[in-house]
Amino acid sequence: MRDLAPANHDLDRIETASRDEIAALQLARLQLTLRRVYDNVPHTRRKFDAAGVHPDDCRTLADLAKFPFTAKSDLRDTYPFGMVAVPHDRIARLHASSGTTGKPTVVAYTQADIDVWAAVMARSIRAAGGKRGMKVHIAFGYGLFTGGLGAHYGAERLGCAVIPVSGGMTERQVQFIHDFKPEIVMATPSYTLAILDEFRRANLDPRDCSLEVGLFGAEPWTNAMRAEIEQSFDMHAIDLYGLSEVVGPGVSCECVETKDGPHVWEDHFYPEIIDPETGAVLPDGSPGELVFTSLTKEAMPIIRYRTRDLSRLLPGTARSMRRMERIAGRSDDMIILRGVNLFPSQIEALILKCPGLTPHFQLELHRRERMDAVTVVVEARPTAAGEAEREMSAFELKHHIKSVVGVTVGVRVADPGAVERSQGKARRIVDLRRSA
Ligand code: DLL
């Protein structure tokens, strides 16, 4: 793999500014944002009033802790435009995330918001090792999902040639990668595995393809999966994070020279870690729930948005801006099995330790005699699909899970190709418990 670290003079100046300078910029922008929301969003103004806080009470960054959180329910309750802080003729774009229940959440952007988004995505692709003149194959879905268009505008801003393939039609993805020779690919990690399978099915060696860097995100993945993707394609695999309510992809991204967790682009998004039970702000380094406040957004500024994503804030390394630890899981994806917390990402890391198994998997939840039970359904590698080998793999995985996580689960090793493939975010949890 080539050394693709960007030169210092190619970075935005603020990426390497002093912490004091970053904090001063954050405070000024935060005060403006609180004021903008208070003056223009009645829903949030009522919440501030009920909590007895006013934008003037924010004199230091720590004062932000006095302000109420925003939850997904606030966006649902005010559907579709109740959180918009600008006259509607200034809205330049709407995106929406489908969500599993009820109404979608809608997010709005002004032209200035779209510009900031393009800038933070360009910064992310550059941090990943992307350079002007490279070609970018975008396999994130285009449409209301923020993945495709977010990546698109960022790649264009960096001066790359964009190949807007979107998700799906996996055979054609492989053909275009083979024929157009992009250096960069952007996709969900689970869909990247489907592309990898298709390379092999087509009898092409993925290590021979032109790809040098992949930016992967939109769903949790592990360092074990990084290793699998990097070895299979002989390319750098970089973690890209974001969420629609905050902007879309490009809230934070790893740097290719360190690959030690995404750097939060703190000049635009202010991160906090809270205790998910009490809401108390925790010091950097403590594990908890990520909360973001936008610092520059116009159309839909967001104050203390509870992401439900579990992480930690860590000091900057390749940049001055703080890092977040790779997302361990979402609090709402956590399975509590006989008192033990279990995340799909833990299972993913253990599956990758078993040479006979592929990382295509789902967790089935059952209820047996009023006790919850989990069965890991995971595919055998085609080279280890015989009955005896599968039994061995199942035994091995069960053993790893028991000794690392501390719970007994069922394991079913399925035929190659039997586990549902997604073209976007993978569905890792299949809940078969009948509602009581
Ligand atoms: O998934 C935005 C995105 C697109 C990010 C493309 C990265 C790449 P939503 O659909 O609103 O937005 O989903 C946001 O996805 O709260 C996390 O739970 C999860 N997520 C996103 N990136 C990562 C990541 C987009 N790198 C939700 N690691 C977030 C783990 C991620 N989880």
From TrEMBL:
InterPro entries: Adenylate-forming_Reductase, AMP-bd_C_sf, AMP-dep_Lig_C, AMP-dep_synth/lig_dom, ANL_N_sf, PA_CoA_lig_proteobact_actino, PA_CoA_ligase. One of its GO terms (biological process) is phenylacetate catabolic process. Belongs to the phenylacetyl-CoA ligase family. It comes from Roseiarcus fermentans. It catalyses: 2-phenylacetate + ATP + CoA = phenylacetyl-CoA + AMP + diphosphate. Transmembrane segments: none annotated. Its EC number is 6.2.1.30. Monomer. Catalyzes the activation of phenylacetic acid (PA) to phenylacetyl-CoA (PA-CoA). PANTHER family: PHENYLACETATE-COENZYME A LIGASE. This is Phenylacetate-coenzyme A ligase. Residues 339-433 form the AMP-dependent ligase C-terminal domain. Keywords: Ligase, Nucleotide-binding. It comes from the Bacteria. The keyword Nucleotide-binding applies. Pathway: Aromatic compound metabolism; phenylacetate degradation.
